[in-house]
Design brief:
The protein has about 800 residues and is of the alpha/beta class. The chain is about 30% helix and about 15% strand. The protein has 4 domains: about 1-55 and about 65-290, TIM Barrel (Alpha-Beta Barrel), CATH 3.20.20; about 305-500, Glycoside hydrolase family 3 C-terminal domain (Rossmann fold, 3-Layer(aba) Sandwich); about 550-680, Immunoglobulin-like (Sandwich); about 710-805, no CATH class. The chain contains 23 helices and 30 strands. The strands form 10 sheets. Strands 10-16-15-14-11-13 form a 6-stranded mixed beta sheet. It has a 4-stranded mixed beta sheet with strand order 8-7-5-18, with no helix packed on it. Strands 24-23-29-30 form a 4-stranded antiparallel beta sheet, with no helix packed on it.
């Protein structure tokens, strides 16, 4: 069916005029593609959907500022990754795909599979892991699930997108080997194994070229090397020049950039600078999705109950028991408990931004506690949600804690800590929460902390608890899921998908993240997450892959051959449970690189007292590295160490094997990368690794169309500086409420060039240039160009619309 649709799409595209084909490369409105009904091309509907369908009602908006239709809010990707269960991700994806069908959505914009380069990225809750293999395997399951329902999945953001600050005006500068091995591998796994029909490019530039028009990314790697033949859609407002996108593999710019870029494509074809075959290639990719759209047909009913139950199961299997001193958990029936913490009443169950889902229902701990055999003595707020110190709230919590056998403290990161459009300032929990824990601990040390957070956090406060259950951002059914684990109805089986350092400063990127200027230099190279901590023997609070259980597991009888590793997992306890054995490899080290790397895992259920034989196969990702000299994937020859472990710091079975391959040597120019001590890498060493001179930051006060609007604070125009001041004050006012103003965050990070892409066609590229002239103090020139451009753009838009209506062959 897909092959037939591809052939039909190509045939239809070839029948179009250049103008018609070019018009398909720009969106019609906020969520819909352009239709050419007389040519048999319908439109299709796109919607955000990393952990649920966010189908906007009314005119809609891409940031979730308006109301969306109700849908199941599943746990976020950061949560699901902790399950280490691609089949669970697939089940969740299938359910979301069903809801997308019911809500009239053809393309679900997700999953997010960017690598967690730094714990401070404000959007980490939407991403799976710091490890590309784990992220890729989990995302592949999710994509398979979505597309099993006839809905197209759209993995994002391709690629090397690691920070929210200046996200639309940042240039990720990264060496080729690091880009391939760390930042592209998850996408490669998804493309090769799950065959997504669409993919979203990222806002940022990659080594000097915008992602949506980056030929190396979109043509050389994605399409030619990986064989992707689907549609590449820009992130909303992320397209730069439609001509270059069409030339280099970008299919569709969204949301509604108007027709200025369409006219530019037609001119480029006419003057011979853009081959018309490129336009037809891109149009065919869009048409293929349109031909598969089902949103115009009958919609199936949405049955919310089973999906709510599935959301609970996903949360249960993804929650991580990080601490359980003296086996305080599971709680015995009838235990006298006190619920302390604002999040017990108002749960923190998802992040902020375009992924926000309007849940079909929302559980709170206080509402569902009656369903459990616990003696609840009361609830105390404990702390101010926005972090203000409040002695009376702490006093109330202390008084309640004295009356309970066990305190269940609901704590975590607040809404302003994790949001699209901003990055965290530090890794600490709010001090108000820590003060509350310390005060309560003084009168009742039997504290069980239930933590809500979409990314790693510092845990110096852990000693003030006897148990920590990390539920991450657990979706609409997270409250009952947590209580089922606490009371033993569910045996926890989640494992951490990212490292928890002792302190933020231990992270290798802490000195240069986030980049505050145009260029974001990926100085750390391959040493991301556990790859850094294990290579440098830096102590961590909780290692990658860590998680406790009410069961105990023992590994034995490891055998390794050319096909993979086989071993036995034995449940040595009296409690049925699930475990996640992990396969790590250590290379012969003739080539610089991390000490160990994850190359496989398996989630297995083992009944009490029984054993299960597990096989983790080797594959094309197990032993490879990207050879800079040969510009291709290669395998290092020599003796490899194969390890099976409970986590990256607890490898209990090892066996060596010799493999044939190349012998590589590290250049002395960047020899300091050998031991992983990248926190002190110099410009000269990074330049040697990069193989190019470091890009220079622009000097002077002249702004360009690629600068974000926040840079107007240094503009020559007094009016522009005043506008920047107003934006800064509005952001500060919103921050004071504890909830991010997504509109302000988007505008401040948005570059001038995006005015064209986000203006419903009312702003042209010529007008953007005029606005920048105004900002740079050329008042008369800029005003003339902007005003004249407005009328010229409006007149040209009418002419193009009329030509499309009349099927004119040219503009």
């Amino acid at each position: 069916m897909t092959s037939q649709r591809t052939d039909n799409a190509r045939e239809i595209a070839q029948s179009l005029s250049v103008l018609e084909a070019a018009s398909l490369l720009a969106g019609r409105n906020e969520w819909e593609s352009r239709a050419l009904p007389e040519r048999g091309i319908p439109s299709f509907i796109m919607s955000d959907g990393p952990h649920g369908v966010r189908r906007q009602t009314g005119s809609g908006d891409h940031l979730g500022l308006g109301e969306s239709e109700k849908a199941t809010c599943f746990p976020t990707a950061a949560t699901v990754a902790n399950s280490w269960d691609p089949q669970l991700a697939q089940d969740m994806g299938a359910a979301i795909g069903q809801e997308a069908r019911a809500l009239g959505v053809d393309v679900l914009l997700g999953p997010g599979i960017n690598i967690k380069r730094s714990p401070l990225c404000g959007r980490n809750f939407e991403y799976y892991s710091e490890d590309p293999l784990q992220a890729g395997r989990m995302a592949a399951g999710f994509v398979r699930g979505i597309q099993s329902q006839g809905v197209s999945a759209c993995p994002k953001h391709f690629a090397v997108n690691s920070q929210e600050l200046r996200r639309m005006a940042s240039d990720s500068v990264v060496d080729e080997r690091t880009m391939r091995e760390i930042y592209l591998t998850a996408f490669e796994i998804v493309v090769r194994e799950a065959h997504p029909q669409t993919l979203m490019s990222s806002y940022n530039l990659v080594n000097g070229t915008y992602a949506h028009e980056n030929a190396h990314l979109l043509l050389d790697i994605l399409r030619q090397e990986w064989g992707f033949d689907g549609m590449v859609v820009s992130d909303w407002g992320g397209s730069n020049r439609l001509v270059e996108a069409a030339r280099n593999g970008g299919s569709l710019e969204m949301p509604v950039p108007g027709l200025d870029g369409v006219r530019a494509v037609c001119r480029a074809v006419k003057d011979g600078s853009l081959p018309k075959e490129k336009v037809y290639d891109r149009a065919a990719e869009v048409i293929r999705i349109a031909l598969g759209a089902q949103s115009h047909g009958e919609r199936p009913a949405l049955d919310a109950d089973p999906h709510h139950a599935l959301a609970r199961r996903v949360s249960e299997e993804s929650s991580v028991l990080m601490r359980n001193e003296d086996q305080i958990l599971p709680l015995a029936a009838g235990t006298t408990v006190a619920f302390i913490g604002d999040m017990a009443k108002t749960p923190r169950y998802q992040g902020s931004g375009s992924s926000q889902v309007n849940p079909t229902r929302l559980e709170t701990t206080l509402d569902v506690a009656k369903d459990f055999d616990l003696d609840v003595v009361g609830y105390a707020q404990g702390y101010d949600r926005q972090g203000a110190l409040n002695a009376s709230l702490i006093s109330e919590a202390v008084a309640l804690a004295k009356r309970a056998d066990v305190v269940i403290a609901y704590i975590g990161l607040d809404e302003l800590s994790e949001s699209e459009g901003l990055d965290r300032e530090h890794m600490r929990l709010p001090q108000a929460q820590i003060d509350m824990l310390e005060a309560v601990h003084a009168v009742n040390p039997r504290i069980v902390a239930v933590v809500s957070a979409g990314s790693s956090f510092e845990t110096a406060w852990a000693s003030k608890t006897q148990a920590i259950l990390h539920t991450s951002l657990s979706g609409q059914a997270g409250a009952s899921a947590a209580l089922r684990i606490l009371t033993g109805a569910v045996n926890p089986s989640g494992r951490l998908s990212e490292t928890y350092p002792v302190r933020y400063e231990d992270n290798p990127t802490s000195r240069w993240y986030p980049a505050t200027q145009r260029h974001s230099l990926y100085r750390e190279g391959l040493y991301v997450g556990y790859r850094y901590f294990t290579s440098t023997h830096t102590p961590v609070a909780f290692p990658f892959g860590f998680g406790l259980s009410y069961s105990t597991f023992q590994y034995s009888q490891l055998t390794v051959d050319e096909d993979g590793a086989r071993f036995t997992v034995t449940n040595t306890s009296t409690v049925d449970g699930s475990d996640v054995p992990q396969l790590y490899v250590r290379s012969p080290k003739t080539l610089w690189g991390p000490a160990v790397e994850l190359k496989g895992f398996s989630k297995v259920h083992v009944p009490a007292g029984q054993s299960v034989e597990v096989t983790i196969p080797f594959d094309s990702y197990t032993f490879r590295h990207f050879s800079i000299d040969k510009e291709e994937w290669a395998e290092e020859g020599g003796e490899w160490q194969i390890g099976i472990g409970h986590n990256v710091n607890d490898i209990v079975l090892t066996q060596s094997m010799t493999r044939e391959g190349v012998t590589s040597f590290t250049s002395s120019a960047y020899a300091r990368y050998i031991d992983g001590r990248v926190e002190d890498i110099t410009d000269v060493e990074f330049e040697a690794l990069l193989g190019l001179p470091l890009p220079q930051e622009p000097r002077g006060g002249v702004l360009t169309t690629g600068d974000p609007l926040s840079e107007m604070s240094r503009a020559k125009s007094r009016l522009a500086r005043a506008v920047a001041s107003v934006l800064a004050k509005k952001k500060a006012k919103a921050d004071a409420t504890g909830k991010p103003d997504l509109g302000i965050l988007f505008v401040t990070n948005m570059p001038f060039r995006a005015l064209e892409k986000m203006s419903m066609g009312n702003v042209s590229a010529e007008m953007v240039d005029g606005i920048v002239e105004l900002v740079n103090g050329h008042t008369w020139t800029g005003l003339k160009q902007t005003v004249g451009g407005f009328f010229r753009n409006r007149r040209a838009n009418r002419q193009v619309e009329q030509s499309l209506k009349n099927h004119a062959p040219t503009e």
